[in-house]
Specification:
single chain, mainly alpha, 14 helices
């Protein structure tokens, strides 16, 4: 919205600032953070008034959570969605199709998560929406948005899959790219959801991934930088730097209230939305595989669950003391802050590896 003010820069030179992507990205970060800070306490009070007993704690989870996390409200992702939506609408170029596509995934997945959280709270049970229903709804949104992204992508093969460390190599997946792109969005969404089990554990890696894709989207959307780095150029993706900035700002504001001991949990409302957002941005920028590297922590958590389930069904034995992986370390006696900070360190290392793919070709 504010981008349109640059049209009047001939009369007011100062308005030319709104033409610069870096300025608007910085503005988006600060705006989203302020919104989360200002409305966070209001939202938390509202959630507490509606959730007398807080988020239902899994009966099969760590027993310590029944004592330390009982009564903490969930659905805190609402404050992030509010901050992201308002900041994106304020600072992004709203004529850009990619902005609307990633925003649609974020809000759509957030709505599914909200419904899931609402059922958990009202039924006072950790079940929520049936798993198949959630996946079906997520897949529907992801497929529609994937088709949308393919239809508006120019200057590059819209159904091509880029491989990191190779110059300009695109594997044409044809129409198979649509289910592949949908899988990336749904998979990223549920991976973040699985990771969200300890105070502050998921939101910091989400912000780290968003920071990586802020850089990637800016460089991929700039033909000069893309040519210098010998990576593919995707016209219009630079605007997603603003969107990634809103995730960082909203995440910082949310972390203020989610830092241990958490005053609120993001719930499926936040985790499904944040994962879906990262997945959508990776699809638009043709860096789906890099998301798997940068978001390797989310992948690791998901794999731990898959390995645990498969092993138990086939052999009757568990590989981990408890899945996802962070619960395994809890059961081994690690303190919660130790697990969280060490996982953050892993996320930082993976982010560096992911960024290195831009130059190591």
């Amino acid at each position: 919205m504010l981008y349109w003010l640059s049209n009047f820069s001939g009369d007011f030179a100062l308005l030319n600032l709104f033409r610069y992507l870096t300025f608007r990205t910085g503005g988006a970060v600060v705006t989203a953070m302020i919104i989360a800070f200002v409305f966070g306490p209001v939202i938390i009070r509202w959630l507490k008034s509606r959730q007398v007993n807080g988020q239902p704690i899994r009966e099969d989870g760590p027993q310590s959570h029944l004592l330390t996390k009982q009564g903490t409200p969930t659905m805190g992702g609402v404050m992030m969605l509010l901050a992201i939506a308002v900041s994106t609408l304020l600072w992004a170029d709203l004529s850009n199709h990619y902005v609307w596509a990633v925003l649609a995934v974020t809000m759509g997945f957030g709505a599914i998560g909200f419904a899931d959280d609402y059922l958990k709270v009202t039924k006072k049970h950790s079940g929520g929406l049936p798993g198949r229903v959630k996946l079906a709804l997520e897949a529907t949104i992801a497929v529609v948005v994937a088709i949308w992204i393919v239809s508006v992508t120019t200057d590059i093969n819209p159904t091509g899959l880029a491989l990191p460390f190779f110059k300009g190599l695109l594997l044409d997946l044809g129409w198979f790219y649509i289910p592949f792109a949908a899988f990336i969005m749904v998979g990223a969404s549920n991976s973040v959801n699985l990771t969200d089990g300890l105070d502050g554990l998921a939101i910091v890696p989400v912000m780290i991934c968003a920071g990586v894709f802020l850089v990637i989207s800016y460089l991929i959307g700039n033909i000069v930088f893309a040519d210098y780095l010998q990576v593919h150029f995707v016209r219009g993706t630079g605007e997603l730097a603003v969107f990634c900035g809103t995730i960082i700002g909203a995440g910082l504001g949310f972390l203020w209230f989610n830092a241990p001991p958490a005053m609120v949990f993001m719930g499926d409302t936040g985790s499904l939305a944040m994962g879906g957002a990262l997945g959508a941005v990776s699809v638009v920028t043709k860096h789906e595989i890099v998301l798997g590297i940068t978001g390797g922590l989310f992948v690791l958590e998901t794999v731990s669950v898959i390995v645990q389930v498969v092993s138990f069904k086939l052999t009757g034995r568990r590989v981990f003391r408890m899945a996802p992986l962070h619960h395994h370390f809890e059961q081994k006696g690690w303190a919660e802050p130790t697990i969280v900070i060490r996982f953050w360190i892993i996320a930082c290392i993976l982010a560096i590896v992911g960024l290195s793919t831009l130059k190591l070709r």
